[in-house]
C-alpha cells in the first residue's frame, strides 16, 4: 500500500467515527434545546389558561385553540410532559407533538384535565437541516484536507520516488555502463538529502568492492596460468626421460590430468570474469554457420557414443554477438547433451530465427532444475566436470538478452534446452578488449 | 635451426628451452622487451616465439620491429589472454601462429615445425618420415608412392606424430592438438583411440611399417627405430 493511501485511510478511519458521533451529538443537543424551549412554552401556556380560568373576564379565545383540550376529571394529576403523535389539521397527517398534561382546579371538587400540544415537526426540520449542514461542511473539509494532503505528499515525497526509480535501475554490472557509480540527486528536504548521500556512499563502496573482487578473480586466474604452464611443461619433459617404468608414466599422466582440469577451470573462470567485465566486442554473425560447424565437430564424437545426431538448422540466422562467445555457448550446450545422453539415444538440435533448441534423452536431474545453471553445480556421476559449462551458457545468454529455458519431459525423458533469440537483434555497446 | 624465445617467466622460458634443445634447435632466450630487441638485432633467427605480455613493453611492438628488420623470420605469438583481438592484430602484423597459455610443448614444437616449413622451404610442402610422405599443402599422404585416404582428423594426428618423432605423446596432448578445446569430454581418450586405430590400420594396409608404440595405455611413441 502506498504511503499516501495509508495516510488517507488512517485519516478516514478517524474522521468517519468523529463525523458520525459529532453529527449525532450535535443533533441531540439541538433537539434537547428545542424541547426545553417548547416545554417552557407549554408550561407558560398552562399558566395562561389557569389565569384565564381564574379571571373569567379576560380574553378566552386562546383557550379555544385546537392545541388545547379541556375535559372534566375527578382525579388531580401532576403536570407531565410527553411525546405523542397528533393530526396536523392543515396537512392532514400525523406529526410528532409535545404535550403537557395537567389538571386545573377551578372550585373545590371541580377539576379539569388540560392537555396542551405543540407540533414539533418544524423544530425537528430545523435540527435536521442544521445537522446536515454541519455534516456537509465536515465532508467538504475532509475532502479538501485529503486533496491537499495528497498534493503535498506527492510534492514533498517527489525526491523520494525519484531515488526509488534510480535505485531500481541501479546495477553493479550494468551492461556497457562506462560510469557504474550512480550519483543520487540532492534535494531541499534534509531527510532526503541524508538518504541520498547515504546511498551515494553505499553505491561507491559497492562499486569499489565489486571492482576489487573482479580484478582479484581476473588477476588470480591470470597469475595461475604461468605456474600451470610450467608444471605442465616440466611433466612433459619428465615423460621424455627414456627409461621410465609404467608406474612413473601413469603417475605423471595422472598429475597431468589434474593439471588439465585446473587449466580448464581456470580458463572458464577467466572467461566468466571477462564476460562480466564486458571485454567482448559484439558483431553481426551468422549463428547458423557456427551451429553447423560445431554440430559437425561433435558429430563424430556423438556417433562414437552411438548417439543419433539430428540437426534441423534454418540457414542464415543472424545475431549480434561476439563470435568466440557464440562458439562457447553452442559448444557447451552440445557437450552437455553428449555427456548426459543415454547410449544409443537421440540428440536433436534445432535452430530457427527465433530459437535454438537442444534435446537429449536421459535420466532426470538429481537436483532441482533451478540449480542447473549455478556455478560448480555438478552431476554426481561426473565429478570431473568443471561445473562451469552451463554457468557460462547462462552468463553469455544473459549478456545478449537471450532467455534460456530448461525443462524435463518426464514421459519422453527428454532434457530440453531452449534459447529464445532476441528479435530483432539488439545493438549492444561494449568496451573493446 | 635458430630459435629465439622471448618470455618473461624464467621457469617457463627454461622448460621451453630444454624441450626445444632436445629437438635439435639452437635456442636463444630473452626475458624482457629490451633484451629481446637486442638479441633480435644481433642474429638472424629462423623462428621467434614471443610472449606479448612482457613487463617492459608489448610483444606486438617487438613483432613490428622484427618484421621491419628481418621479414623472413617465422613468428609465433604466445599469450596468456585468449584474446581474439590480440590474435587478429598479431596475424595482421605478419606473425604465423598464435598459442594460448597453457599449451603442450609437443604442440609448440609442431607449430614451430609448420612455421619453419612454410617459411624456409617455400613451395616445397613435403614432409618425409620413413616410408610416409605428407604433402602439407594438399593434405595428401603417400606410403611408398601409394595414396592413403585419411580423414581430416586422422591426417592431423599423423601430422602431430611426424612433428614429434621419438617423443612420448600423451593422449591428452594429441587430443588437444587435433580438437582444441572441444574435447574436454570425459571419455575422449577412448574416442581418440578409435581414430588412432583407424589411422594405424590404413597405414599398415598400404605396407607401411608400424611406427606407433603404445606406452602403458597413457600415450604413444612414434618412432622409426624398432
Describe the protein.
- The complex is a heterodimer of chains A (433) and B (226).
- Chain A has 433 residues and is of the alpha+beta class.
- Chain A folds into three domains: 3-155, no CATH class; 178-279, Helix Hairpins, CATH 1.10.287; 283-420, Heat Shock Protein 90, CATH 3.30.565.10.
- Chain A is 52% helix and 19% strand.
- Chain A has eight helices and eleven strands.
- In chain A, the strands form three sheets. A five-stranded mixed beta sheet of chain A has the order 6-8-9-11-10. In chain A, strands 1-4-3-2 form a four-stranded antiparallel beta sheet. In chain A, strands 5-7 form a two-stranded antiparallel sheet.
- In chain A, strand 8 and strand 9 (355-361) form a beta hairpin.
- In chain A, helix 1 runs antiparallel to helix 2, helix 6 (287-304) runs parallel beside helix 7 (323-339) and helix 7 (323-339) runs antiparallel to helix 8.
- The longest helix of chain A is centred in the N-terminal third of the chain and has 52 residues, at 3-54.
- Chain A is rod-shaped and about 160 Å long.
- The two termini of chain A are 47 Å apart.
- The mean pLDDT of chain A is 83.
- In chain B, helix 2 (33-42) packs parallel to helix 3, helix 6 crosses helix 7 (171-179) and helix 6 crosses helix 8.
- Chain B folds into two domains: 2-120, Rossmann fold (3-Layer(aba) Sandwich); 126-222, Winged helix-like DNA-binding domain superfamily/Winged helix DNA-binding domain (Arc Repressor Mutant, subunit A), CATH 1.10.10.10.
- Chain B has 226 residues and is α/β, with parallel strands linked by helices.
- Chain B is globular.
- In chain B, the strands form four sheets. A five-stranded parallel beta sheet of chain B has the order 2-1-3-6-7, sandwiched between helices. Chain B has a four-stranded antiparallel beta sheet with strand order 8-9-10-11, with helices on one face. Chain B has a three-stranded antiparallel beta sheet with strand order 12-14-13.
- In chain B, 43% of the residues lie in helices and 24% in strands.
- Chain B has helices spanning 10-22, 33-42, 59-69, 84-92, 105-120, 152-163, 171-179, 188-205, and strands spanning 2-6, 26-30, 47-51, 53-54, 57-58, 74-79, 97-100, 126-129, 132-135, 140-143, 146-148, 168-170, 212-215, 219-222.
- The interface between A and B is large, with 45 and 43 residues.
Amino acid at each position: 500500500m502506498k504511503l499516501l493511501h495509508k495516510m488517507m485511510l488512517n485519516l478516514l478511519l478517524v474522521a468517519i467515527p468523529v463525523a458520525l458521533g459529532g453529527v449525532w451529538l450535535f443533533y441531540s443537543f439541538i433537539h434537547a434545546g428545542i424541547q426545553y424551549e417548547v416545554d417552557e412554552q407549554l408550561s407558560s401556556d398552562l399558566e395562561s389558561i389557569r389565569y384565564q380560568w381564574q379571571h373569567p373576564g379576560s380574553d378566552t379565545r386562546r383557550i379555544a385553540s385546537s392545541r388545547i383540550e379541556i375535559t372534566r376529571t375527578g382525579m388531580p394529576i401532576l403536570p407531565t410532559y410527553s411525546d405523542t403523535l397528533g393530526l396536523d389539521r392543515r396537512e392532514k397527517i400525523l406529526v410528532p407533538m409535545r404535550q403537557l398534561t395537567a389538571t386545573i382546579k377551578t372550585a373545590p371538587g371541580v377539576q379539569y384535565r388540560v392537555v396542551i400540544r405543540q407540533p414539533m415537526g418544524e423544530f425537528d426540520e430545523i435540527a435536521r437541516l442544521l445537522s446536515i449542514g454541519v455534516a456537509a461542511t465536515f465532508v467538504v473539509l475532509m475532502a479538501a484536507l485529503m486533496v491537499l494532503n495528497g498534493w503535498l505528499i506527492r510534492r514533498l515525497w517527489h525526491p523520494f520516488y525519484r531515488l526509488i526509480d534510480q535505485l531500481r535501475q541501479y546495477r553493479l554490472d550494468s551492461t556497457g555502463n562506462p560510469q557504474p557509480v550512480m550519483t543520487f540527486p540532492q534535494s531541499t528536504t534534509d531527510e532526503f538529502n541524508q538518504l541520498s548521500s547515504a546511498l551515494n556512499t553505499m553505491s561507491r563502496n559497492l562499486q569499489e568492492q565489486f571492482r576489487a573482487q573482479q580484478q582479484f578473480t581476473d588477476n588470480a586466474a591470470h597469475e595461475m596460468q604461468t605456474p600451470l604452464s610450467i608444471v605442465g611443461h616440466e611433466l612433459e619433459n619428465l615423460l621424455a626421460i627414456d627409461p621410465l617404468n609404467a608406474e612413473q608414466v601413469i603417475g605423471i599422466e595422472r598429475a597431468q590430468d589434474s593439471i588439465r582440469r585446473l587449466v580448464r577451470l581456470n580458463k572458464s573462470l577467466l572467461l566468466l570474469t571477462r564476460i562480466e567485465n564486458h571485454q567482448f566486442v559484439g558483431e553481426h554473425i551468422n549463428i547458423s554457420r557456427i551451429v553447423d560447424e560445431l554440430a559437425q565437430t561433435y558429430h563424430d564424437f556423438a556417433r562414437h557414443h552411438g548417439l543419433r545426431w539430428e540437426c534441423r538448422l534454418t540457414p542464415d540466422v543472424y545475431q549480434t554477438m561476439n563470435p568466440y562467445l557464440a562458439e562457447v555457448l553452442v559448444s557447451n550446450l552440445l557437450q552437455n547433451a553428449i555427456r548426459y545422453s543415454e547410449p544409443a539415444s537421440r540428440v536433436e538440435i534445432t535452430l530457427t530465427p527465433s530459437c535454438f533448441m537442444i534435446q537429449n534423452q536421459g535420466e532426470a536431474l538429481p537436483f532441482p532444475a533451478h540449480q542447473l545453471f549455478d556455478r560448480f553445480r555438478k552431476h554426481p556421476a561426473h565429478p570431473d566436470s568443471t561445473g562451469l559449462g552451463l554457468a557460462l551458457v547462462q552468463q553469455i545468454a544473459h549478456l545478449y538478452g537471450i532467455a534460456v529455458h530448461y525443462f524435463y519431459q518426464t514421459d519422453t525423458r527428454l532434457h530440453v534446452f531452449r534459447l529464445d533469440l532476441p528479435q530483432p537483434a539488439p545493438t549492444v555497446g561494449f568496451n573493446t578488449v | 635451426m635458430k630459435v629465439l624465445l622471448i618470455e618473461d617467466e624464467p621457469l617457463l622460458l627454461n622448460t621451453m628451452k630444454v624441450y626445444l634443445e632436445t629437438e635439435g634447435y639452437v635456442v636463444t632466450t630473452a626475458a624482457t622487451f629490451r633484451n629481446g630487441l637486442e638479441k633480435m638485432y644481433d642474429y638472424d633467427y629462423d623462428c621467434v616465439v614471443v610472449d606479448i605480455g612482457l613487463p617492459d613493453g608489448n610483444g606486438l611492438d617487438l613483432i613490428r620491429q622484427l618484421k621491419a628488420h628481418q621479414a623472413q623470420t617465422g613468428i609465433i605469438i604466445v599469450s596468456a589472454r585468449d584474446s581474439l583481438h590480440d590474435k587478429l592484430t598479431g596475424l595482421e602484423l605478419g606473425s604465423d601462429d598464435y598459442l594460448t597459455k597453457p599449451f603442450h610443448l609437443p604442440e609448440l614444437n609442431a607449430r614451430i615445425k609448420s612455421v619453419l616449413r612454410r617459411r624456409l622451404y617455400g613451395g616445397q610442402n613435403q614432409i618425409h618420415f620413413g616410408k610416409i610422405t605428407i604433402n602439407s599443402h594438399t593434405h595428401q599422404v603417400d606410403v611408398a608412392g601409394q595414396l592413403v585416404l585419411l580423414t581430416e582428423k586422422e591426417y592431423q594426428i599423423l601430422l602431430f606424430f611426424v612433428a614429434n618423432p621419438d617423443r612420448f605423446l600423451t593422449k591428452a596432448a594429441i587430443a588437444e592438438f587435433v580438437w582444441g578445446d572441444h574435447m574436454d569430454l570425459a571419455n575422449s581418450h577412448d574416442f581418440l583411440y578409435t581414430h588412432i586405430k583407424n589411422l594405424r590400420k590404413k597405414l599398415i594396409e598400404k605396407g607401411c611399417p608400424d611406427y606407433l608404440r603404445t606406452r602403458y595405455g597413457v600415450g604413444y611413441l612414434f618412432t622409426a627405430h624398432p
